């Protein structure tokens, strides 16, 4: 069966499902009927390909070659039909519902993506075809070379939004795309800008509000724009996120916090921030090992949340960490791919201690879990109130998705130390100075104040010996306990990081901003391997800093200061 066009004529639609095809038709595109797939794969079948992408391209090529429309058949390469040169892989992922793979492509012309195009292939566990859905276009009548620079296009956005261009200096560089104007029925080469913090005045007219509060689209707009790369015309713009609701409520420490949620069913409001992809769920005293974890976010009847202190602390602090990842490290979530951050409050672990207390907060199974402890009055208070602890635990997730440092000896100590470093930086970050992070002279250098033995912190960057931990390689603990002393020995690297953060020049001025240090440590974490040592970390850090400070008149002094920060603790 040949596909029929179901979209406007400039996009050609393809829908193919093996269940609706004859055996002869399936044979023609190199696939077997469903009833013949229970046994082993046949010789020469697509399972011989070494990737889902290769199998998907094989089927697409065969389907396209049978199509009578020139715009579809033209996507194949006659000398090597398996290439399908004008399709660019977007991603490949396992279906969360069944044992199949979903491979997604976008159409290109002259290596430029076509906006609104797609080719999606579903494969079974033997890489046999299950289904194809595609929307492909015949792009014509438009040049593939831009006349305007990205900066000129951004200036046009600033003018339309009536803001100064300096407000948009941190907008990520755009990509080029071919865009079809449905109203005028013609193609454009366009710059595609994401998450631009400016909106035309007319954008706010149609935005609804809930509970008496303006949505984020009105109070903190972030829009995506398509700007003609030839004449600078604004082709299209829209909000980059669903409409959120501004909410507020008191956290565990009695602070009134403002945060974003979403309108839930039947007029409720829930702790689900779709902009940051943060969801907060109440485990209600159940064990973290329960087989039926709830998934619904904490709900409230109004935008002012009451009696939800633990949930608000978890939701608000997780949002702060996500903002730091996005704005400072330019990272899309913990995994770098926009994963949802789920936090569970009111957790217990009967195997560790009797409920309802659980003295812990942990990153585990790619979620955050918060226990609680009784205060002097006997009231349960959540560990979600500690931003430094939350940032520390979520940084373990960051490590998991970057270097994945092995939790043993020096690499394990580095795993702990990088979490401490980001815990200190995030908890002390000055939001009023987002481009520097603030002045470290005002910082608190303790991780978990009052949570250690005898009222001491868990760790102290400025003086690790205060908690009985080593501050120099001369005192490195060669123990077999605690995975090779990962918590104790992390303090040596913590002290080096402290020296780095507070380093001064000859005139007594700070050499580095917290922004500098955060970016350099993040890039270092991205490059380390699983079994990295303190020395390898220093070498990698210096290598990255050499490029980062290129052209800086204080480059030599700064590199020397990094070396001295580590040398002072015996890492050379």
UniProtKB/TrEMBL annotation:
InterPro entries: Peptidase_M4, Peptidase_M4/M1_CTD_sf, Peptidase_M4_C_domain, Peptidase_M4_domain, Zinc_Metalloprotease_M4. Belongs to the peptidase M4 family. Residues 403-571 form the Peptidase M4 C-terminal domain. GO terms for biological process: proteolysis. GO terms for cellular component: extracellular region. It is found in: Secreted. The keyword Secreted applies. Its main location: secreted. Extracellular zinc metalloprotease. It is an enzyme of class 3 (hydrolase). It comes from the Bacteria. The active site is at residues 393, 487. Keywords: Hydrolase, Metal-binding, Metalloprotease, Protease, Secreted, Zinc. This is Neutral metalloproteinase. Its EC number is 3.4.24.-. Residues 249-400 form the Peptidase M4 domain. Gene3D superfamilies: 3.10.170.10, Neutral Protease Domain 2. GO terms for molecular function: metal ion binding; metalloendopeptidase activity. Its cofactor is Zn(2+). It comes from Bradyrhizobium guangzhouense.
């Amino acid at each position: 069966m040949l596909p029929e066009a179901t979209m406007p004529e400039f996009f050609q639609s393809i829908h193919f499902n093996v269940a609706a095809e004859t055996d002869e038709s399936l044979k023609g595109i190199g696939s077997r009927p469903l009833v013949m797939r229970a046994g082993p794969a046949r010789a020469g079948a697509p399972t011989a390909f070494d990737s889902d992408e290769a199998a998907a391209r094989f089927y697409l090529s065969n389907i396209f070659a049978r199509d009578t429309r020139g715009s579809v058949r033209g996507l194949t390469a006659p000398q090597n039909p398996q290439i399908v040169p004008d399709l660019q892989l977007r991603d490949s992922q396992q279906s969360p519902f069944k044992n199949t793979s979903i491979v997604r492509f976008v159409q290109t012309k002259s290596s430029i993506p076509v906006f609104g195009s797609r080719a999606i292939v579903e494969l079974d566990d033997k890489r046999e075809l299950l289904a194809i859905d595609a929307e492909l276009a015949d792009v014509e009548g438009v040049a593939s070379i831009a006349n305007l620079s990205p900066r000129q296009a951004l200036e046009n956005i600033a003018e339309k939004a009536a803001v100064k261009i300096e407000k948009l200096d941190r907008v990520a560089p755009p990509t080029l795309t071919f865009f079809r104007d449905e109203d005028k029925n013609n193609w454009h080469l366009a710059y595609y800008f994401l998450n631009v913090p400016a909106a035309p005045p007319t954008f706010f007219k149609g935005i609804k509000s809930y509970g008496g509060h303006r949505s984020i689209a009105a109070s903190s707009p972030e829009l995506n724009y398509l700007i003609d790369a030839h004449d600078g015309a604004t082709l299209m713009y829209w909000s980059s996120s669903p409409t959120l609701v501004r909410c507020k409520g008191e956290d565990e420490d009695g602070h009134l916090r403002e945060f974003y949620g979403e309108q839930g069913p039947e007029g409720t409001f829930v702790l689900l921030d779709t902009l940051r992809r943060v969801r907060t769920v109440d485990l209600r005293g159940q064990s973290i090992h329960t087989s039926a974890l709830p998934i619904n976010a904490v709900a409230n009847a109004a935008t002012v949340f009451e009696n939800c202190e633990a949930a608000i602390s978890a939701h608000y602090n997780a949002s702060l960490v996500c903002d730091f990842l996005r704005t400072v490290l330019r990272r899309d979530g913990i995994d770098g791919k926009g994963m949802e951050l789920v936090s569970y409050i009111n957790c217990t672990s009967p195997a560790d201690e009797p409920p309802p207390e659980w003295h812990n907060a942990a990153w585990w199974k790619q979620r955050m879990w918060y226990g609680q402890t009784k205060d002097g009055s006997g009231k349960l208070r959540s560990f979600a109130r500690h931003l430094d602890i939350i940032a520390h635990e979520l940084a373990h997730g960051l490590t998991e998705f970057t270097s994945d440092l092995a939790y043993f000896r020096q690499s394990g100590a580095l795993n702990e130390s990088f979490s401490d470093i980001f815990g200190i930086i995030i908890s002390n970050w000055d939001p009023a100075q987002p481009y520097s992070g603030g002045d470290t002279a005002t910082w608190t250098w303790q991780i978990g104040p009052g949570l250690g033995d005898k009222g001491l912190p868990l760790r102290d960057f400025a003086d690790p010996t205060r908690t009985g931990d080593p501050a120099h390689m001369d005192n490195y603990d060669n123990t077999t306990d605690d995975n090779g002393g990962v918590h104790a020995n992390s303090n040596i690297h913590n002290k080096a990081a402290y020296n780095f953060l507070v380093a001064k020049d000859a005139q007594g001025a700070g050499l580095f901003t917290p922004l500098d240090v955060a970016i350099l440590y993040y890039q270092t974490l991205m490059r380390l391997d699983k079994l990295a040592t303190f020395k390898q970390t220093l070498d990698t850090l210096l290598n990255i800093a050499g490029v980062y400070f290129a052209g800086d008149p204080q480059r030599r002094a700064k590199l020397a200061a990094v070396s001295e920060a580590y040398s002072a603790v015996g890492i050379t």
